[in-house]
Design goal:
Layout (H helix, E strand, L loop, with lengths): L7 E5 L9 E6 L3 E13 L18 E13 L2 E3 L12 E2 L2 H8 L6 E6 L5 E4 L1 H6 L2 E4 L6 H14 L4 E5 L16 H4 L8 E5 L11 E2 L9 H7 L6 H17 L5 H9 L6 H14 L9 H4 L5 E5 L5 H20 L6 E5 L17 H10 L5 E7 L7 H5 L3 E4 L5 H10 L5 H9 L4 E6 L6 E5 L19 E2 L3 E2 L24 H7 L2
Parallel strand pairs: 9-15, 9-16, 10-13, 10-14, 11-12, 11-13, 14-15
Antiparallel strand pairs: 1-4, 2-3, 2-6, 3-4, 4-5, 7-8, 7-18, 16-17, 17-18, 19-20
Length: 511
Amino acid sequence: MGETTPFEFKFLMAGEASRGSYVKVRDGSKGWMVAQVVDVTRSNVAYSLSAIDEENPGAKERVLGLSRVIGVASGGRLEMATAPPRPGDPVLRADDHLIEMALGLSKGNLYIGLLEGHDLKVKLDADALVQKHCSILAKTGSGKSYTAAVVLEELLEKGVALLIIDPHGEYASMKQKNSKGEFARFDVSPRGYDVTVYSPASSAAAPHADRPFRFNGRNLTAREISAMLPEDVTNSQRGVLYEAIKVLEAEGGDYGLEEIIAQAEKDSSKAKWGLIGHLEALADLGIFSGKATDLGDLLQRGRASIIDMTGVPPDLQGMIVAKLLSDLFEARKRGRVNPGMVVVEEAHNYIPERGSGRAASTSVIRTIAAEGRKFGLGLLVISQRPARVDKNVISQCNTQIILRVTNPNDLRALSKGIEGMSSELEEEIKRLPPGTAMLVGGDIEHPVTVKVRPRKSRHGGVSTPIVGDGRADRGGKAAPPQPKGPDKRQDSGKAERKEPAGGLLRKILGK
């Protein structure tokens, strides 16, 4: 009814309908024009105070729908609409097959969930998601990590090798199968996955880890160490580092961090003390002690390797990620490790936007975002603060999975970093309920709203109540189960003596 265009039209609704549903109208001889209802209004111009006593004041009520045209389905393909629909033509509900074809839902092989308001499975293409990168963005409590795990489960089932940077130890629970969810409705079966948890921290700080994560700390070059240092390290401090290693290399000896620190202490520059502080922090962490972790073990097809940063100081996490990903990217370029995908949880800590902070890992993650697809190394970035994530990286992600976002700064960041983001999409994103995501880009022809399927593996990101029995640990998350029996992790360090509870207090008070 009324004025129509090739892009949108209004129509009179009969019966109940809702925003987000899909309709069709005949497009001449070509086929069906497919559109999505973006707004619904109800009016009754005859209704007034004098009409209250009438028998049926709603008889003249009208419900109008505003639909945005997606395209014209013709010959099994979706084409751009070139002519507006005729006023007076009937508007019908779109059938499932037409919706699948119009939205491109049948092309993928990663099952994410059901189309909102329908029982249609929404699938993404695994190759496109890995090779062209992906981002998952949402506010806290919207299901960000849960949705990320759903994507990771699908990738593992397709044989993709995953390396997950996990600041809070949320993904180790993927080993175990889930016990809660509408499995029948979403047509999924619970299961666990092949997951290995590595920890850069000591065995006392991360007793739940399967293996320690260590670098080769012998004969490091100045460039390798410099890449791990924070961005605020001065040129003078880097000069001290280069000079110290130059002397050690000239002596032809086998050196490590301790020898580099000792040599730097001999420098006459006052800048040495800031450098020594950073180097001592690395040495104290023990990341360069013991047997180095084989990079080839971290990328195994159909297996997830998790770098659990629990117990690692925040300023050192960026340094570890910087060296790990630099080494991994170089190894991948030379074909020494399998292709795979790097997953960066809490990405705003590792690739902060300019002005939001600094991290040693920013440069290498930018490089992977720009060049990784050429070498078979994909990137998945996950964050609850889109405004604080490097926009260069977000813009390189071809597939966007967005859950509820309400912060104005984060919404503006999405508009700048995501192609095709409109004011209507912003409003939709602000209203998304928990567990519902909007897919933008990729092989999906049009932004779609998806009810995310239940996880097959157990969710490990459930927060612990503040008021409880005192068993909370690790920043609001349940403390990991303590291993039974002796610690069997493959660490070369000696067993650490544990003080009995309250031992220090007894020494001070003499009790």
